[in-house]
Amino acid sequence: MTIKILPETIASQIAAGEVVERPASAVKELIENAIDAGASTISVETSEAGKRLIAVADNGSGIPAEELPLAMARHATSKLQSAEDLFAIHTLGFRGEALASIGSVARLTLTSKPEAQQAGYLIRVDGGVVGAVGPVPAPTGSEVRVEDLFFNVPARMKFLKSDSTENRQITGLVTRYALAYPHIRWTLVQDQRLVFKTSGSGSQMEILQELFGAQDSKQLLPITFTDREIRVNGFISNLSLNRSNRKDITFFVNGRWVQDAALTAAVIKAYNTLLMVGRYPVAALFIELPAGQVDVNVHPSKSEVRFRDSDQVFSALQRAIRRGLLAYSPVPELRPANLWGRQANHDESGTVFGPSGFAGAWGDASTAPQAAQPQSYLPLERLPLLRLIGQVAATYLIAEGPDGLYLIDQHAAHERVLFDQLMTQYHAAAVPTQALVQPVAVEFPAEKALILSQQLPGLRKLGFEVEDFGPNAFLVRSVPAVFAAGDPQAVLQALVEDFEEDEEPLAAEIEAKIAGRVCKRLAVKAGKILSESEQKALLLNLEASQSPRTCPHGRPTMIHLSAALLERQFGRTGAI
After folding, report:
1. For the segment 379-403, what is each residue's pLDDT rounded down to a tens digit?
2. Going edge to edge, which strands form the sheet with 404-409?
3. For residue 319, what are the CA distances in angstroms to 180, 266, 323?
4. Residue 525: pLDDT band with limits 50, 70, 90
5. Residues 6+ positions from 183 with CB-CB distance below 8 Å
6. What is the rounded CA–CA span in Å between residue 128 and residue 105?
7. Do the Cβ atoms of 285 and 270 come closer than 8 Å?
8. Domain span at residue 495?
């Protein structure tokens, strides 16, 4: 085939693919330009998750009229003067690609007015075609409007996620930059709805409440640590605040939001042995070091960095976190009575247990169902009749069957029982509900509120009546009867926490996934001492399940020790 030079429009669209991967990428480039311009107010507005409109306005220094056409050209920037400047970058932007890349795949309008200029001037770029400059009334600063993103590359639209997911990306981006620059007044409006707003007072705690919620932000510990030229400061979570994923670990390096697997690993290692396996801390950490010690010119998106001495950075990060945890963690108090004596009849999920059975899950054990309805959609081997022996370590039940011993994880088993009951009722289209005497209002950070909003239809099908109750707030009016004694706020928190960032289950699976997450949160926890009647009720309902050997997430509920294995271990059949 003949070698040809690509037309400028195609070359621009290819280059734009590295900079503008999704609407949030365009928002990132534009707000970084606004920060570099010295803005004290930045407002972001989107429509249809940024596909129809992205508008970013600021009161920064602006661009002179005669430089507007140059600003639309590729590799045109005011932030670099020589090749040496690449090794000591002090600004967020420097490549001179943002406006040109966005303009090549959208309809872009830039209006700008420096303070010394009498009027504002406007320039348009339509799919890479730059228009003329014209005067318009405008306040000091700049406004960039990006309309019909990817209109000329429709194939890119197929790779975007749902509007809810793309909105969460934008919300997470803006709130994190607000945390790094709390002296700036930030406003975020999505589809004409105010999502996020700050006062610009410089208080990071104000932003933390928006990012993590009022309750969680109270459990964050401020840290400051200096090691030679490296300074680490920010916030880490105490041991009681943790997540099921790494999403809430945020890093800024010299004021730039970066996503670095090695830095994340350093944080997780600092919490090693302090958190359960599969649980991760919450952290917002700011790393400052000389500009010459970090390379930000790794990828056009500028979200990756490389350190000249990575070991020193990771070591400083780990020591900063570990020292913070030791400084804030109280000396544990040993309470032997709680190890063997009767504990209070409440577990951490809010489920209440009566003296004779699981009140939160089945009511009194004397009225517990003797057998759940068979479920053809849960095909697994049934359990034989079991005889309860007792509980060990306040975590496992020991039972005898006709073919040996069974060690049963009470939390995983209770998950299975609750899930079976709820899904049986769901498939029968008869989920009994319990109205709350007093509706419960629950508030979430903006990014997490979007996650919950996406799951409200599935919750309603499972018997939860949850409705919007103002910006980022929800009102719980009723719950499934099987969860009547549980904590509604814990249910919603479980959904927000466990749904992954880009997880979009098939419509046929969404209710089962929601049910699994809810049951995991409300099931009895390890460490809870159960009465004999509670243990018997749990075994009885587990025997009735057609999938008794795993919880809804696939974790085993039991270990079977056959009589033959026991005989071999005790040497009754010869040498071990």
Report:
1. 345 788 889 999 998 899 999 988 8
2. 387-392, 396-401, 404-409, 558-562
3. 22, 10, 6
4. confident
5. 40, 200, 201, 202
6. 7
7. no
8. 340-563
Query: Among all chains, which residue has been given the structure tokens 């049910």?
Result: 515
Indicate if 139 and 182 belong to the same structural domain: yes
DSSP state of 88: S
Separation of alpha carbons 129 and 103, rounded Å: 8
Of the pLDDT bands very low, low, confident and very high (cuts 50, 70, 90), residue 409 is very high
- Which residues are bridge partners to 283 per DSSP? 236, 249
Note the residue count of the chain.
576
Of the candidates 299, 328, 357, which is a domain's last residue?
Answer: 328
Helix orientation angle between 510-522 and 488-498, rounded to the nearest 10 degrees: 120
Q: What 3 state SS string does 489-553 have? A: HHHHHHHHHHCCCCCCCCCCCHHHHHHHHHHHHHCCCCCCCCCHHHHHHHHHHHHCCCCCCECCC
Query: Where do we find the tokens 């409300």?
Result: 522
pLDDT tens sequence across 460-515: 888 888 888 877 888 988 888 877 667 777 777 777 766 654 455 545 567 787 88
Question: What domain count does the chain have?
Answer: 3
Query: Same domain, yes or no, for 283 and 354?
Result: no
Q: What is the pTM of this model?
A: 0.69
